[in-house]
Specification:
It is built from five helices and six strands, in the order ββββαββαααα. It has about 160 residues and is α+β, with helices and mostly antiparallel strands. It has two domains: about 80 residues, Nucleotidyltransferase, domain 5 (2-Layer Sandwich), CATH 3.30.420.40; about 70 residues, no CATH class. This is Carbohydrate kinase FGGY N-terminal domain-containing protein. Belongs to the FGGY kinase family.
Length: about 160
């Protein structure tokens, strides 16, 4: 029986559901909390997300009576922007959807639309940039914290110039 792990990492917790990939039957579930935050600019350390995911996955596997290695695929929702590389810790904490960090990139969204045109964005991506999209969060990071945008490349030893 092929297994799929559904992962939902929200502002409050990480939940993992293990399901039979053929019929969708729920086999096990696990949940672990994230650190409490306080808007308007609540942020969390991505290391806490990783810990919560590992805990929730272990609980779901125990509930289903399976080992993590028996999971065939994983599915997760859209992430916050996290500046990191596989060999180093995250460069900074991440803003959560329940706070002002989701509105911070509004000027960058407007700038991207002004620079390239809404029609071109829709034609290329199917969307017009808004403050909620990753591209505008990256534009905000480039403008306000360029060192953190470059940090993963430098920390991983794959720095690019120019």
């Amino acid at each position: 029986m092929p297994l799929v792990a559904g992962i939902d990492s929200s502002t409050q917790s990480c939940t993992v559901e293990l399901r039979d990939a053929d019929d969708g039957a729920l086999l096990g579930t696990g949940r672990a909390p994230h650190p409490v935050t306080h808007p308007p600019l609540s942020e969390q350390d991505p290391a806490a997300w990783w810990h919560a995911l590992a805990t929730a996955l272990a609980l779901a596997c125990r509930d289903a009576g399976v080992r993590p290695g028996s999971i065939d695929s994983r599915e997760r929702g859209p992430p916050s922007v996290t500046a990191w590389s596989p060999s180093t810790p995250p460069a900074r904490s991440c803003g959560l959807p329940n706070c002002g960090t989701t509105r911070r990139p509004q000027p960058q969204a407007a700038g991207l639309v002004a620079r390239y045109g809404a029609r071109n964005w829709v034609r290329a991506t199917g969307l017009t940039p808004t403050a909620a999209l990753t591209v505008t969060k990256l534009a905000w990071l480039a403008e306000h914290e360029p060192g953190n945008l470059r940090a993963p490349h430098h920390r991983a030893g794959t720095a690019r110039t120019g």
